[in-house]
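Convert to structure. Protein one:
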Amino acid sequence: MAREVDREADDGSADPLHRQGDPPRGVLPALCATQITSWGVLYYAFPVLRPGIVADTGWSSSLVTAAFSAALLLSAAVGVPLGRLLDRNGPRAVMTSGSVLAAVSLLVVAMAPNLLVFFAGWIAAGGAMAATFYQPAFAAVARWWGEDRVKALTAVTLAGGLASTVFAPVTEALTDTFGWRGSYALLALSLGVITVPVHALFLRAPWPPAVSGPATTTTDEAGSVGRIAKSRPFVLLAGAMLMAGFAGWGVLISLIPLMNERGADSSTAAWALALCGVGQIVGRILYGRLARHTGIAVRTVPVFGVGAGAIGAFALIPGPVWLLLVLATLVGMVRGNFTLLQATAVADRWGTHAYGRLSAVLAVPVTVTTAITPFAATALASILGGSPSLFLVLALCSAVAAVLALGTSTQRTEAPSSGQSRSASGDAPDSP
């Protein structure tokens, strides 16, 4: 396969302006633009439009939410086979076709005459999410940017983090004039107009040969992927991501109820959630410095540990309000780091030779957790007697994630070839 990729790269027909070994020009701003649009339309528009959907159709809020959760679950299942295509052929076909599917599926949602068609539209949208969200964008950056991927990944995640800031107010404004159906139709058309041509035109650079990482010990690609996915570091890493993901999403879902239970009014509670978003941006900006000064697994442990401490403080400290707002910002910083930890975990440990598949497998527990957390967190809060008790459970989950992360380091089992490189941070891999 590497020889085939080399021939394609040498041909240069895909992009004559791209010099082999350099990141292709125009790709990073293109991915930033399409991540803002894809996340904004496919994900963040839904919570704004959900009340209007329920009021207009008479469908229950739980069923409407279940359709959206079904999309997230399908995106987790579809991500693995899509990762195989990404590893083999690059992101252009996957992300372009995913953008087309996204526009069409949301038009189906907008015109759905009944709940069955509404579910069908969202299930199709789940496939589009897998093809357009972070995972294919991360795969593109990991392969094209190589050792410089941390800065590029940070830019992409910063763009994704702005999606709610841009599209939540836009969606609200559209709803006032066009209702939920008209809003989804207009958002679907705008998504198609922006993302389809951008993905088709800017992702044309040759797909460079992959680089094996320190824990890759075979040139048999399928066998290597299977061995890595079953290895102790990978299994522990998946478990850590699952626990940390549940903790992080649980905080977001339950932060406003907790603030209300602490005596904060609705405006202050909203500010807490907003500061959590600000913290995510700050955390992503600071991640590059953290990566430069820590090893592959070592950087994961303190991030999850700090998360456990901040979430636990929420559960135990009733105030004052300003301190709760500081804790919300700190939790947001941890969440911002979590996104980049997930994005760099595979390439830092096992290289880019099967990044698409391995990162998709790693994303499955996180995506499933994202889908079920709204229901699970609400149920736990009710069973445990309130949000403070729930936050203690979430803090414990983050602490377990930190402990699991201790076992996720890999060791160099063979000397690197001339084509292999150090991790994205520039540090040598962690010792076992």
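Protein two, convert as well:
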Amino acid sequence: MTGMTSSSRPLLNRRLAEFGTTIFAEMSALALSTGSINLGQGFPDTDGPEEVREAAVRALRDGRGNQYPPGPGVPELRAAVVAHQERRYGLAYDPDTEVLVTAGATEAIAAALLALVEPGDEVIALEPYYDSYAACIAMAGGTRVPVTLRPHDGAFRLDLDELRAAVTGRTRLLLLNTPHNPTGTVLTRAELAAIAELAVERDLLVVTDEVYEHLVFDDAEHIPLASFPGMRERTVTISSAGKTYSFTGWKVGWVTASPALVTAVRSAKQYLTYVSAGPFQYAVAEALSLPDSYFAEFRADMLAKRNILAGGLEEAGFTVYRPAGTYFITADIRPLGETDGIAFCRTLPERAGVVAIPTAVFYDHRDQGAPFVRFAFCKQAHVLEEAATRLKTLSV
């Protein structure tokens, strides 16, 4: 036997047929095989605060979380999430009925879509979108409807008229990501207000991925959509610890929403992982209570790193879109005489010893993203400086 079945039907569920190995796996393997600097996948190359790591060790040693934690998450973390939302945004939630801890934001997104979307429902997502969005919409049986962010005046901008036109009688849900990966766009107060009005007018649910909430730069401000009139009862707000505290391997995320929405999301989530990351939940509870100085220093450090990489990319000849948030930079390869970002990224390790991600894989309209590539700057400054030096060889 060769592992084939007698059936002519493909083994992979047709809903997932378009999703093969992720671009992140392909590019990370390329980084290893060529010894290149990996600016593709968005994970830091240093750990987060020592006191948070020690909190995890203490929880392990004290026997907290070594067995199944409570399904909704440990009480200490749910209370810390509530305190964080109140302190930073003035949003009040009940820790017992309006918070759900998940295996990272990725599981929260999957559970929310599986819970809230019926087969045939339309889900609007901003394009380019994080790759798991498309897969989760497909697993839920939904139809994704992309609304494209387009370059304008040095940033990728949302066309509110296009968003409104995308809503039909079959639209169930808006899936928003701000600060936005991969473009670094941060939706403005005016844009969010318009989205809120549209959601209320058309009676839409909204799932917001806010994992980069603490990574905003320059004059940008992160404002949760749930804080706008009429949105608290129809918004599932998602965040996580990985990006804010540089412990991406812990996979601790959370949902805040009304009791009815949390109950729905939990109904799906409990059959995905049930629970996870027991000791880490206690550590993240302490992390959320760090003083404002931690978040300010974190932003300042990432801003400096953004500027190192952006400057290097500009010197190498790229057109650079300096992000207002996240730790990713989108660059246009056309000034280098290139037009195909996928081909460019596959040859970049051999040409310059650097790995990036082609943004086209995050688009339904591949032509819209063809000339763009994404670089991560959540690395040590000397690594970014070396990458910048290597990339300059492209313009020689």
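The chain has a mean pLDDT of 95. The longest strand covers residues 171-177.
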